[in-house]
Amino acid sequence: MEVKSFGKLSTGEEIFKYTLRCGKTVAEVISLGATLTSLIPFGEVDVIGGYDTLEEYVNDKTDQGAVIGRVANRIEGAELMMDGALYMLTANQNGNCLHGGEGIKRKVWTVEEYDGVSILLSCYSPDGEDGFPSDLVIKVRYALEGDALVISYEGIPYGKTPICLTNHAHFNLDGIGGTVDGQEIVIYADRYTEVDEGLIPNGERPEVAGTVYDLREFTKVGTHFSDKFLGYDRNFILNPTVYKEFGGVSVGLGGAVRNGNLLMNFYTDQPGVQLYTDNFVDEGQYLRGGVKRILHGALCLEAQTEPNCVKRGEAFYDIGETYRQTTVYEFLKL
Question: Which structural domain, as residue segments, surrounds residue 117?
């Protein structure tokens, strides 16, 4: 087992980095935000973005590798209506609440279990944090099973509250530095969630056929990129036909990404996945090793319910109920 100090916060709290190993595959996690900082399949190339220092993670605005919640994606108007009561949430993007505000990704998580192959972390989110109702305990386990990273989530509410968690790792199978334009992606979805200019769902779920969102067969990520189409930032409504068991949980094959050497299969038990292709980049942002962050330098596959789901009364859990989710990134050599 490998545990190292990753620095101290301004509060004096020490953050630690934990290394997971299974064969030659390696993953690293820090206790700030239960953040996945590194993932190296077969011991060859680090396929996710991240930073060298704790300070960079503290100041990060792009959620590199962080656990996201209480509610992933956007909540329109940063408002939540529940049982006749209105809750005002953190408005952190164009008047909407994005990825639950600032709560759990800025917390120091408690390590409950660690054996060198898996790690279980937990955090406590109090009633009113980022405006959300009720106390909530969140647990996340990262586990290597062969050359697959299995992420398992639990949300245990102490009263009624919405829960929709995900991970915001930024993937590039070639290693961070170049674009993902030439890599190929497939997403097993016949429909996607249509959104307005503010990326809020408009209630329509069109078929992908005949659109840039038709990724049902392997397609180069950058095929449709242009001045009029900056990149992908949409929820795909999954309809997997292939299932596989990881850690005792059956999950569906939602899609995959490949380059000439590596295939990453994406499995989840969630109904949707947000594909985001790093369409917006701040000038002067640098990642691990001093690599400049560039447009389309990575892509995210964020398992989720659906953007703005709470406005339709979805994703609510009450005391005695437990939110559970499993998502897997499985790697194969080509």
Answer: 2-333
